[in-house]
Amino acid sequence: MAGAGEGPLAGVRVVELAGIGPGPFAAMLLADLGADVVRVDRPGGTALGPPPEQDVTGRNKRSVVVDLKSAGGPGTVLDLAARADVLIEGFRPGVAERLGVGPDACHARNPGLVYGRMTGWGQHGPLAASAGHDIGYIAVTGALALGGPADGPPYPVANLLGDYAGGSLYLVVGVLAALQHARATGTGQVVDAAIVDGTAHLTAMLHGMLAAGRWQDRRGANLLDGGAPFYGTYETADGGHMAVGALEPQFYAEFVRLLGIGEPLPPREDPARWGELRRLVAERFATRSRAEWTEVFEGTDACVAPVLTLGEAPGHPHLAARGTFTEHGGITQPAPAPRFSATPAAVRRPPAPPGAHTAEVAHDWDVPALRPTPAPAPGPQQPGTLPPTSMEGQ
User: Fold this and answer.
1) Is the pTM of the predicted complex or chain greater than 0.85?
2) pLDDT given at position 45
3) Which of 41, 55, 79, 163 is catalytic?
4) Are 75 and 51 in contact (CB under 8 A)?
5) Is 133 an active-site residue?
């Protein structure tokens, strides 16, 4: 059994070819669950993202620096792949192959390797070679059209829906399923995780409702997209907002009672009167502050909660009691999830600076190519000069 805080994936080795967005998040999730994740950084780092020491997606990992465009770079990565269970890359289709670290090259060294590929458009299709970001991927799946007011433009919720929900989480599911297969058969495989595929998959229930005539294919007209006045957000007297999700009749009855409008409301079952109902609810919420309404609804079955900012969320009493957020290295951040009774996960390492663990990984994974070449002995020092210096892994 893994030791306390090591997580259920203790002993699993993962190579992450550094990138941005969903690939690093997927690797962080595997690392949070106990996998030994070695991130292969490129010289000079990446153009996007926060400084390495604040990049929470770099936690629980170790980092080495390898120049894949150098003569020995691809061979070093293949040495790592030969000792790994999983490799994750997020290049455009064909790039890993051109660099000499594609699936065929890796499987020639390690037939049982799970090779995870994280892209927006997938490994084939008319747009496979095109650039893109979360907003474009979710746009073509129909998911972006779900968010926003009926009389306004759709908007994304940061890059959570495409990059992380439709991308990272599907890559992790695919990698773990393929790892189970590899351990049962000795044969690895390629996992093609495309954000368009994962995001489309997330809309399965809505497609069923659409087919059944229970979902209108337009924004702000449905039960779960802000169309229903009992499932949406309302502004409070101080400019805050409350989220209402009183879907079931018994929860709605409790919501109405605590809201205290004091007059008969239009029937919620009549969409033709939803506008009138929404106006009355909005007027009532506007009479008190967010804190006051939170006190009214807290701990009830009305299904109402305050809308908190990222900075406010860690202080919510329920999240604080559960330890949903943690502080490590001076950074408040989400704690590992989900939770395990026998093999709990933990934040074990701060975000990894590029190349910080080159010598350590070279030893632990027995990859001699990672060991820095000893510098030649300095000659006689000239007056006014300083001896040469070196940085591990650079």
Assistant:
1) yes
2) 73
3) 163
4) no
5) yes
